[in-house]
Amino acid sequence: MEVLMSVSRTTFSDAFQDQNNPDDFASYLEKAFSKEQLTLELENPQTQFYFVYLEGKLVAYFKLNCGDAQTDVKQEDCTELERIYVLKAFQGRQLGNQIVQWIKDKVESDKKSFMWLGVWEKNPRAIAFYERHGFYKFGSHPYYIGNDKQTDWLMRYDF
């Protein structure tokens, strides 16, 4: 649990802390990555967390949701990629490409017709990454960082 809490907080902070109000951001971190919240997510049989190691070091993690564990779409024929983060020290090594391909292979082998994710509309680097991997925008939804209402693009990949 401690490893999941630490990698979740670290990677999310590295990615978004500088672009958000400090109070809203601190509130979000405390709620989203608390021991209680992560325990609920880990205990959900329709949620799976994965750690990625390179040469014995934790370098990334991701989270997949199916069925009712999905945050928005909640269809049985799809999987949500809710989180995918590579630790800052290991970015630029093409790990994200390898991880996304592994996820695609897994979701396809699970006989899903598509996978989807939410990505902050103000994160052009991530949007471009997903587009390179065949994802396309199909909608949007609100995403709150504390009291700050932001917009996530919903992107999907069809099998």
UniProtKB/TrEMBL annotation:
Keywords: Acyltransferase, Transferase. This is GNAT family N-acetyltransferase. Pfam families: Acetyltransf_1. It comes from Maribacter litopenaei. InterPro entries: Acyl_CoA_acyltransferase, GNAT_dom, YpeA/RimI_acetyltransf. PROSITE patterns: GNAT. Residues 10-159 form the N-acetyltransferase domain. CDD domains: NAT_SF. The keyword Acyltransferase applies. Transmembrane segments: none annotated. The keyword S-adenosyl-L-methionine does not apply.
